[in-house]
Amino acid sequence: MGDVVGKPGLLAVRTLLPRLIARHSVDLVIANAENSEGGAGISPESAEHLLASEVNLLTSGNHFWTKRQILPWVEEHPHLLLRPANYPKGAPGRGHTVIQTPDGRKLGVINLEGRVFMKPLDNPFALAPELVAELRKQTPCILVDMHCEASSEKNAMGAHLDGKVSAVVGTHTHVQTADERILPGGTAYITDVGMCGPLDSVIGMRKELSVERFLTLRHTAHEVAKNLVYLQGVVIDLDDKTGKARSIERVREQLPGT
Questions:
Q1: Please, are residues 222 and 246 in contact by the beta-carbon 8 Å criterion?
Q2: What is the per-residue pLDDT for 65?
Q3: Is residue 33 a contact partner of residue 47, using CB atoms and an 8 Å limit?
Q4: Chain centroid to CA 16: how far?
Q5: CATH for 3-254, among 3.40.50.300, 1.25.40.10, 2.40.50.140, 3.60.21.10?
Q6: What single DSSP character describes residue 256?
Q7: CA distances (Å), 200 to each of 8, 207, 216, 226, 230, in order?
Q8: Burial code of 192-205, b = ≥16 C-beta within 10 A, e = fewer?
Q9: What is the pLDDT confidence band of residue 132, given thresholds at 50, 70 and 90?
Q10: In the chain, at which end, N or C, are there fewer CB atoms within 10 A of the end residue's CB?
Q11: What percent of the chain has pLDDT above 90?
């Protein structure tokens, strides 16, 4: 699932995810949680809310550090919440892990952050093959959350890892793209899986405040919007033996009453 934004996003996941799991016979659920606390950052409470809502693993991005109270929590739960793997060595947390289904099937997950229009982190394109090689010792099934601003950078990572991982899914821009497909090497790809949060907004925030920022160029505090709340993401079907993707399907479901 795409970036979960504030309380509306948390409510959408808690309400809609169980029926989606049943409808699609989902084995494992991954959600990007970096905006789950107040629209920017993660708190122990928002992380635990998502994990209690049948989410198996949380990924993040450039807002991982915004709420500092998450740092002790992630040190205690390093395999439940990932931060981008290309942060400098010594950063709290970890950027890749392996999760598994109740019957023992494994999925490797890598969280990366892009550098175009973002922080000058370590090169994700150089690091990714190293992490893939490490995870492939345990499983051929690997998903990459590519958290970045530029669609070109996400497309390039898809091409870079095609045939080496099962899926490359983009997050961060909060706008679901319509380019889901299986790449030539068997990797499922989408530029951005979208957002779990209010669509009557500017990427989850109250549109009036965002418009004011663009009009005046003055800082105004962001507030999470409330209306037209959706859960967005993708369902990916993998071949357990080869790690190749069989299909990728967009999910876009509205929270009743919003």
A1: no
A2: 86
A3: yes
A4: 17
A5: 3.60.21.10
A6: T
A7: 12, 8, 22, 8, 10
A8: bbbbbbbbebbbbb
A9: very high
A10: C
A11: 96
